[in-house]
Structure formats: structure tokens, C-alpha cells
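Reminder: ligand-aware prediction takes two inputs, not one.
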Amino acid sequence: MSGRYALVGQPVAHSLSPRIHAAFGAQCGIALEYGLIDVAPEGFDAAVTAFARSGGAGLNVTLPHKEAARALCATLSERARRCGAVNTLIRGSNGWHGDNTDGAGLVHDLTERHRLDLRARKVLLLGAGGAAHGVAPALLDAGIESLWIVNRSPDRADALSDRLGDPGRVHTRYWDDLPNLGVFDMIVNATSAGRSASAMALPSSLATERTLAVDLSYGEAAIAFLSWARSQDCEITLDGLGMLVEQAAEAFRLWHGQAPDTDPIYSELRAGAVALHTAE
Ligand code: ATR
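Here is what comes back for the chain with 2'-monophosphoadenosine-5'-diphosphate:
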């Protein structure tokens, strides 16, 4: 199915999504138009309605609209319900169907592209905003041993923990407790600290060379956390570029019914990664 698609967010000017979806479309022989809609929160619902009226068939949703997108959906996938956030909208006869491909994208990147086994890992999730909500259910489904959610504002960590409903494996701790939590097998940075001027101070007791360090951002936004991880001798440090490509592939599959090969566009973007601007 061809048609009109777009990414809606703010800001979106530096997004790689149009390039990624154009590459998938060319590869699969699907003619599609993929645009960018830059809109502030107060204009989100009207922008989505106008897009649907003009024949829009699907939307990717990024900051700061993932929770608003969930609210306007007629139906939700099970994983979108568990995340409490929507990053992919699919137009149906009864309105929008919402899904969330972020978590599947992250796990696919880690387990398929990088051949990492996530099972039985003690995982620290830094942050409890939209990005953390998007990936937490998929990490649990991937068989991690435990998920420790630590957020600067503790109420958001508690809200995410409550939503996940897995008290045997999900724990929350205060930011000030970080030095007392021991070593983790995996640390996921889901904060937006790298996109802001406010630095994030982490204790060295959290990581050893065996700790897998993952930043959900890419480009400049991932530099600070991944530099910290390398300074702790972490042997595997990954940014969110692979996740970005994989979540796009999953959205493409939902819209068009075909699963594209992600390797060509991932390699192309990785080759130019130093020039990448920010996360979306
Ligand atoms: P996103 O969709 O990228 O997750 P968000 O929902 O605004 O964006 O969430 C940003 C996350 O980064 C939050 O968990 C935020 O912590 P608070 O909930 O306490 O605001 C976290 N964050 C941002 N800057 C941070 C910093 N300098 N140190 C620690 N956490 C930070």
C-alpha cells in the first residue's frame, strides 16, 4: 500500500525518518510520501486530524507527543497499552490505531544486530519519561532478570513501575541511592540529559568492563553517557541509532505489510554518524 506518511513532533527538522522510510520504500518497491509535521503540544490533535483529512495513512510520533497520541487513538495494541505511549499511528476505518515500536526496535537491535543475550541481566534504567516507558516492557519480555528504575523525580519512576506491574522484577530507587546499588549487567540511559545543558553525574560503582551500556539517543546527545561508560572500561557501548532504524522498520511493516532489510540504511547512517545531530 502506498500513501502519505509523516513524523509528527517538535523539533523534527533534523529527523532521519524521511531518509529511512524512503530507503525502505525503494527497497520494497513501495511509492510513499513521508513528510515532517512540526507542531507544539496545543496544536497536536488538530494537526493529526488535518493529516487524516488530507489522506494521511500513518504517522510516527516523537517528542513531546507520545502520550497525547495514545489519548487520541480509537484502539491500541497490547504493547502500546503497556507502554502508556504511542510512537506509531495507523489509520483505520474507525479512526487511529496506536502502537509502540520503540521497545521492539531496541531489543531487535541488541539481540539481532549485535547478537547480545539480554536474558538474566540485572538492568539499570536511568530515566522514567517517554523513552523509558517505550522500552521497559520489551526489556522485561526479553527475559532480563531485574529492572531497576532510577529517575531524578522519584514519582515518575514509581508511576512507570506501577504501570509495568511486575513487582518481583521491577524495583525503583532514589537517584541519591545510585552509589549503593552495586554493579549492573546493563545500563540503559533513557534520560534526556544529553540533549540538555544539565549534566548527569553517575558513580563509578555502577559499571565494570562487562556492563553493556546503551544510550537511547544517538549523535551528540549520546556522547556524554557513552564517554562515561568507556571511562568505566565498559567493553560494549551502543547508541540508539540501531534502535531508531529498527523501530522505523517495525512501523514500516505495520503500515505496508513488508519487513525491510535494515542493514543497508543502518550502515549508511552509521558511516555518517559523526554528523548526526540529535535523537528523535
Ligand atoms: P523522553 O521522551 O526523552 O524520555 P521526557 O519524557 O521529557 O523525555 O523525559 C526526560 C527524562 O530525562 C526524565 O526521566 C528526566 O528526569 P525527570 O523526570 O526528573 O525530569 C530525565 N532527565 C533529564 N535531564 C536530566 C538530568 N540532567 N539528570 C537526570 N535525569 C534527567
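The chain has a mean pLDDT of 95. Residues 208 and 232 are 6 Å apart (CA to CA). We will return to this case in the review session.
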